[in-house]
Amino acid sequence: MTVRARAAAGLVLAVMLITACSGGGGPDHPRRQDSPGAGSTSPANPRHPGHVRQRVLMPAVSPSCHPGVNAAGWWMVSHRQLRALERVAPGALRHAVKFANLLVLGAPDRPARVGQPVAVFKSYADLRGAIAAGRIPRRTHWVLYDNERWPATPVREQKRPGRFETLFASLAHRHGYRVILAPGQDLALGFSRTHFARNIAAWRRYLSLGLPAISARLADIYEIQAQPFELPVYRHQRIFLADVQEAVTQARVANPHATIFAGISTQRVARASDLFSDFMAVRGLVAGFWLNLPHYRGVRQQRFARQFLSQIPGAAAATGRTCARYVPVPPAGPARP
């Protein structure tokens, strides 16, 4: 090959490499979908985040970096409970929680000013109404569906959780939101008369119905509401661990790339060491935790939270490196609630 031919071939190779690198496309640097000509459609409602040119931080797992094991952990907590922790346990909170890895739950029209705000909905109908009325502020990029067996979730949504989680996730994604699905395991009790014997535990019914698989396929984050099984009556059976293990297994089969959180609660345990034990037992299985402090004004709950957060291992605490990647907000299509 002549010198001129070798030079020409080198130029072609360089151009090919530049094109490949600039295209993104890899899991750590996905191609932007909101650039001109990327194929996205104009958002139907200019107030929703599909119209915002920014990226949202998402937990991710790779062979060399697993959240909660060798990197700073991810957390969800309600805005009110976070404010209580900032007052009564500021040192423990700073030790345990990296605010870039914090999802802060609150009312759709009152987003938190710290962490990543999450608008919480207890029914699909509420999400549809909030989107139609433009009640979700532009800075909110996450929505959570907390469907449980309670008056806040309509009975028809309780009876068909799979259908309404599908509707919720589809509507939210069309409008550019990231979705957290956190179904209560008590939803399975509504199926007991027709599908299960009365003596089968709720968590077994929940798993038998395949609800973890449904949620993991649809959600950006699937949260296992396992905290009811932290009660002392279940501890000797290690049901909390068994519930999380089996739900994670089912979710991973349905979606190997699912981001999974587990719920823990200061109200369910008899002592802070039990909370820490549950955290340690499953931290290698999940990317993060939803920390619940139901009676956050109570001295006992505050003490448990402070003691628990102070015990978080350094590798999983705020000083750990962030195990995460940036993912662009998905493009929005025409809204059809």
Low-confidence stretches: 1-54, 192-197, 330-337
Radius of gyration: 22 Å
Number of domains: 1
Major sheet: size, sense and barrel closure?
Answer: 8 strands, parallel, barrel
Structure description:
With 337 residues, the chain is an alpha/beta fold. 38% of the residues lie in helices and 15% in strands. The chain has a single domain (63-328), classed as TIM Barrel (Alpha-Beta Barrel), CATH 3.20.20. It has helices at residues 3-22, 79-88, 90-96, 124-133, 155-159, 161-174, 192-195, 202-208, 211-218, 232-235, 239-254, 272-282, 299-311, and strands spanning 55-59, 74-78, 102-106, 116-121, 142-145, 178-181, 221-224, 259-265, 288-292, 324-328. The longest helix has 20 residues, at 3-22.
Short structural summary:
This protein is of the alpha/beta class and 337 residues long. It has 13 helices and ten strands.
Task: List strands and helices in order, with pairings.
Elements: H1 3-22, E1 55-59, E2 74-78, H2 79-88, H3 90-96, E3 102-106, E4 116-121, H4 124-133, E5 142-145, H5 155-159, H6 161-174, E6 178-181, H7 192-195, H8 202-208, H9 211-218, E7 221-224, H10 232-235, H11 239-254, E8 259-265, H12 272-282, E9 288-292, H13 299-311, E10 324-328
